[in-house]
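Form P-L/3: holo structure prediction, ligand iron/sulfur cluster.
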Amino acid sequence: MMRYAMAIDTKKCVGCSDCVVACQTENEVPIGYCRDWIVEVTDGTYPELELEIRSERCNHCDNSPCVRCCPTGASHYSDGGSVLVTHNKCIGCGACVSSCPYDARYSHPKGYVDKCTFCNHRVKKGQQPACVSVCPTRCMYFGDLEDPNSEVSKIMKLRKYKTLAPEAGTKPQVFYLI
Ligand code: SF4
Ligand code: SF4
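OUTPUT (holo model):
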């Protein structure tokens, strides 16, 4: 079975925000909201400091509290395990927004909840998600984790990686190469 996933190289991300702008344009995200964002984390003690820069988004978790808590079925698993929201089934109750440990959803001014879709409208046409396609350092890899020849499978065989907040038990499908 197909499993869409993304791997993001923390050693190559420079925090330029091109992915954020591309996503906002591609998905008509209203001004003041975002489906992806940049996080900078400093670790260690001076002078042994390390800076990690990450492009974050919905993790399209395998065990999603947002899908479980949705009273209308608007939040659901779609092709390749991606987690999507059917806008016209969403009543805007916000249960999913509160349930997400990653703060990956926002309430759209039009009354429904919105978030990253892994650009499923582009992927269906054989294109890469907008964020992946514009990254100037090519630090993002997207594809089918079940296909050993996909870019994402190949890079994850070569590199160490982590997921965010694994203790939440959500089984994220966005992996950070470290
Ligand atoms: S990151 Fe949040 S919104 Fe995305 S699937 Fe996981 S729990 Fe749901
Ligand atoms: S806000 Fe919409 S998607 Fe979220 S739980 Fe409520 S009905 Fe479901």
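COMMENT: The chain has six helices and ten strands.
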